[in-house]
């Protein structure tokens, strides 16, 4: 057995080594981020140069489908990576661009000047049209900036408690997408049930308040936890400003509807989701389902009641759209063919 002094020295040496390794890993992560940004800038320049070499662009308006822009302002931990990877897998085949909106520290609220830059990019960046933009950004009303043609918004939401549980364990254990990446809460072994029982901040009802503000937008009241106005505005935007909002629990049906309605982007998406290796690419590891007692405690919160009301509202709307777009046969869903036509067309041609 080692003498006490040598044991102490070994412990100190091990601690110093671990600190050194953590510091090196942090530096590698920073270098990786810088490299990713440099590669992204290079890719953008290459695309713009390619378009320039093809000859001067026509001033005439682009074809409607070629001028289309979709924004997927993805809510964290709603299967957004699985869905986004379908867009990446199809972009070369279906001939459109995919761009990730990478905000500093994943802040979903843009500064006013960044809002102006973003709107300008989306509407005038012709080299990137048709384009599919995705990122953790709250809804932005393009109309207030005076643009003539607004982008198409889509999104997916999830049962609020399931989303919070997934996010809680993701911060501690990561997922199978980048298993080696060090997460912010790594090393904290406390379960979600234990966190709720102890009244921890990472599982507090206030952490449920996310899907409503993402749909509400950039107004200050949207981020006022428990605001009834924010929920009403989120509902209004979901109905009036979003082309389609699906739910994580019925993701395949969401993809099927998008393929039927927007084939320019999503042709082949349903089959890819069913058979592709990336269908469920990102799974949070070490996730433990909460007990009934934990769920019941969270459900006593007014914040949960509001977030759940919004989720149920979105689910009802999605199921209504699906009911009028598909038919069921032998347990499978099929998209309905065109169900209208034109007649009594006047004046008659000679």
Automatic annotation (TrEMBL):
Protein name per Swiss-Prot or TrEMBL: Heparan sulfate 2-O-sulfotransferase 1
Its membrane topology: Single-pass type II membrane protein
Annotated family: Belongs to the sulfotransferase 3 family.
Stretches of the chain forming a coiled coil according to its record: 18-45
A Pfam family assignment: Sulfotransfer_2
GO terms, molecular function: heparan sulfate 2-sulfotransferase activity
Species, as recorded: Lynx pardinus (Iberian lynx)
SUPFAM superfamilies given in the database record: P-loop containing nucleoside triphosphate hydrolases
Localisation: Golgi apparatus membrane
């Amino acid at each position: 057995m080692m003498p006490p002094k040598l044991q102490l020295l070994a412990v100190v040496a091990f601690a110093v080594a671990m600190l050194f390794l953590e510091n090196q890993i942090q530096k590698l992560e920073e270098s990786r981020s810088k490299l990713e940004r440099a590669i992204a800038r290079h890719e953008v320049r290459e695309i713009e140069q390619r378009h320039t070499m093809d000859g001067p662009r026509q001033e005439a308006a682009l074809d409607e489908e070629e001028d289309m822009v979709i924004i997927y302002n993805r809510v964290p931990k709603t299967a957004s990576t699985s869905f986004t990877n379908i867009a990446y897998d199809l972009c070369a085949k279906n001939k459109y661009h995919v761009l990730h909106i990478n905000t500093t520290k994943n802040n979903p609220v843009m500064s006013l000047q960044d809002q102006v830059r973003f709107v300008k990019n989306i509407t005038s960046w012709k080299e990137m049209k048709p384009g599919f933009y995705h990122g953790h950004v709250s809804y932005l009303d393009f109309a207030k900036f005076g643009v003539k043609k607004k982008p198409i918004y889509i999104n997916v939401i999830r049962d609020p408690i399931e989303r919070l549980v997934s996010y809680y364990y993701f911060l501690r254990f990561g997922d199978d997408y980048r298993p080696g990446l060090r997460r912010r809460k790594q090393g904290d072994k406390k379960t979600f049930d234990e966190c709720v029982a102890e009244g921890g901040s990472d599982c507090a009802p206030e952490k449920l308040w996310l899907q409503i503000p993402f749909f509400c937008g950039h107004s200050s009241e949207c981020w006022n936890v428990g605001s009834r106005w924010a929920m009403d505005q989120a509902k209004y935007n979901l109905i009036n400003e979003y082309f389609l909002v699906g739910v994580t629990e019925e993701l395949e049906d969401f993809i099927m509807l998008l393929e039927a309605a927007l084939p320019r982007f999503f042709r082949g998406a349903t089959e890819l989701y069913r058979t592709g290796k990336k269908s469920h690419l990102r799974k949070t590891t070490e996730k433990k389902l909460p007990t009934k007692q934990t769920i019941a405690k969270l459900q006593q919160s007014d914040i949960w009641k509001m977030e759940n009301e919004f989720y149920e509202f979105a689910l009802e709307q999605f199921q209504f759209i699906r009911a009028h777009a598909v038919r069921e046969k032998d347990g499978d869903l099929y998209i309905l063919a065109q169900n209208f036509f034109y007649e009594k067309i006047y004046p008659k041609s000679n």
